[in-house]
Amino acid sequence: MVRYSPLGRLSSNAHTPRIAIIAIFTSLAVVSIASLLVLRGTDISARLHLFSSPPSEPEKVDATPSICPAIGPNNHFEQQYGHELLQRSIAHEGSNRRLREKIAKAQRGEDIRMAVVGGSVSAGHTLNDWRNIYFYRFLDWWNQQFPNGHHEIFQGAVPATDSGYFAYCFDKHIPKDVDIVFVEFSLNDASSLPCEMAKQGSIVQAKMMESLVRNLLRLPRKPAVIMTSVFSFNVNEYLDGQESHLPISNYYDLPHISMKNALFDHINRHPDDLKGKLYNDGHHLSEWGHQMLSDMVSHYVERQICAMSDTVQPPLLDSYSYNESIPKYDMFTHRWQQNEFRELEPYCHTFSDQSYRPKEVDGWKFWNWQNEKFYIVADEPGASVTFEVEANQGVVYLYLLRSANYNLGNIWCWIGDDKEKGRELEGYWDKWYSVGVMTPVAEGLSQGQHLLHCELMNKTSHPDGGTHFRILAVASG
């Protein structure tokens, strides 16, 4: 039975997880539910897509069922998938200090708040039922292990976005008081090595993912971050965002669960055996694929629960620098620059927040695509827009759509009054996929507020002369 709680959440009885959408305005806004229960509303910071489970009954039960050993022939997951496949899925194990702290919290019967940031896979594209998304299935498994707590997951995924967008805009889509965060961007991020998505490789993509991870780790509850990697059969090579992410998993001691490690070679050898089961369209996971990813993550967490039951005393060095929350400096700061290091304080103005308006608009209009993607768009050369931006590390980016479709052209952007020193940004490219790309506009700015101006150009990179342009967000830090 489903009932409304006083706070406007959808709640259910027993131990069935529930989904709710909280929309808070100056007064309570109207909540509407569409195909994957994508959030609607005006203030995006209040439009949090929540999957939750009800509080347990008051009776005392063992909050840590006997599921060990997590390795061996008697383990449920290993019986289903095999030991070697599950081992290969662990791209980076890590010490799991933070994750084990959250497990211990759940074992005490306390509530755990989780969140997901990612692209269309985590948004559940091609699925008919949101209950089949991997993180919802994981929540169901977590509830079985820790029935005394009230656990919930906030769905923050946005289709066709990469880690660059979330590096600056994550807190527009998930709350800051979370304990565990799942990160999934392997399909939309480019490899740091030369690849189909980036012919020269993309060090920028690695920097963006690091900024996202570092800011998530700095959140008030010091959440555990779990990286996940999937892969697309439609991409013609092995390399993708995972290669940009693995060094970050290593540097920040993050677990990294990879379907690609486990299945890429097998699906190349036996595409008829697995492709139809793993995907709905060759790119997005099927229900079976989401179940497998959930099981890989659950098996990994199960290993940590079992390891925590060991009574081995920690080594002497365990009390050394490993107790620090995060590395003192980011991965890209040279030692001779360390005295100049400042943490990124991201600023994000996203058109997903339908209440946001730039400082000045001339010839641009706001456009909502299927209540899923939100842009400011222009078609006529000379159309201009001005944004107020705040610099911390001195950088400004536009998050813009890049595609071979939609007749995308070029814009010219500059800071302040120095139009001649601006930059030309292209919307068109010749790749087969359409995604948002965090594109640098300025670096080395002084700390404080600046004005960013952009103008649609007569000049265009589109082979047919297209001059349409779409901006999803402006970010700075």
TrEMBL record:
Membrane spanning stretches: 20-39
Keyword Manganese: no
Keywords in alphabetical order: Membrane, Transmembrane, Transmembrane helix
Record carries keyword Transmembrane helix: yes
Domain of life of the native organism: Eukaryota
InterPro entries found in the cross-reference section: SGNH_hydro_sf
Protein's name according to its UniProt entry: SGNH hydrolase-type esterase domain-containing protein
Organism: Mortierella isabellina (Filamentous fungus)
